Input
Amino acid sequence: MPLPQTFNAMVVTETADKKFVREIKEKKLSDLPAGELLIEVKYSSLNYKDALSATGNKGVTRNYPHTPGIDAAGVVAESALPGFVPGDHVIVTGFDLGMNTSGGFGQYIRVPASWVLNLPEHLSLKESMAYGTAGFTAALAVLRMQQHGLIKSHGEVLVTGATGGVGSVAVSLLAKLGFHVVAATGKTDERDFLLGLGAKEIISRENASDTSGRALLKGRWADVVEPVGGNMLATAIKSTKPHGVIAVCGNVASADLALTVYPFILRGVSLLGIDSAECLMAIRSLIWKKIAGEWKLDRLDSLVSECSLEELDTKINLILAGKIKGRVVVRL
Ligand SMILES: NC(=O)c1ccc[n+]([C@@H]2O[C@H](COP(=O)([O-])OP(=O)(O)OC[C@H]3O[C@@H](n4cnc5c(N)ncnc54)[C@H](OP(=O)(O)O)[C@@H]3O)[C@@H](O)[C@H]2O)c1
Output
């Protein structure tokens, strides 16, 4: 198939008065950066970081005009290396994609081959983006927690921000693996959704955010997956039982952490930092194989919605407001 002259992409432009405008525009393949692989993107997905990039957060994206999208799944169109050939089905998540490299919210990307993974067997391109960076991060958190002693007999595992991307996949995966999952959410009307994913109990965001100022709280959680940050993370750490682990995944509420050392020196709890963007290729590959195999979610469809490039604008506003439920797959 001959390559097209132009392709459609979301382009975020910075105006003279420092506003950021999102439009679907035609771009040329020659607009893309240098790279060993040209990939025709079939699906992308919406992550919180994409919304930051799409609204001018210079901590994520320094220069505009820019096409966000930290995730892409598609078909190799051109390859400068023998390891990939046109027609290969591939996934790219993280690294610099969608940050300062034109991202998956466009029908083509050009990237270094070192960012690209062959789509594992038993996973479709669309399914891979149902997980995307958020789902991969939840799986990475679970893997790292297992390496640090996560076992069922320790008791309840808390997942905060439970209806969000990282949260909903973490709830589903931990439930599939047989853990007693307690889901903390601000969306009290999504109780049935969370129970459907496998949570055993739902608690409100307020109940997971202590305001007493005490250095330690009654230890309840065996372990925690925590994408929210701020006081919710501090509360989770203070409420974790001796020798539990807390996977620190995100900061939608805040990047600050107000704590004493007591949870660490009196209870021996551990914080595990989770970074999906620069995760080593060997670990990435292992996690995607698990996602496609023994960890594949039976009810993946129940946490996924789909939108077109044109419909993405509204979803970006929703995720920034903390109002997205589950994962959004973007159809290119
Ligand atoms: N470390 C990594 O490699 C990595 C990878 C992916 C994502 N992340 C980070 O993880 C976080 C979540 O990402 P995501 O894509 O899952 O986002 P998301 O889909 O928007 O999920 C975040 C969820 O957190 C809850 N929430 C939102 N605002 C809140 C607030 N102000 N206070 C308390 N809870 C709030 C909401 O869930 P409820 O309504 O259910 O409470 C929301 O759905 C982000 O900070 C993101 O940057 C990190």
Q: What stands out?
A: The radius of gyration is 20 Å. The chain has eight helices and 15 strands. Helices lie at 48-54, 125-147, 165-176, 191-197, 231-238, 262-267, 281-292, 312-320.
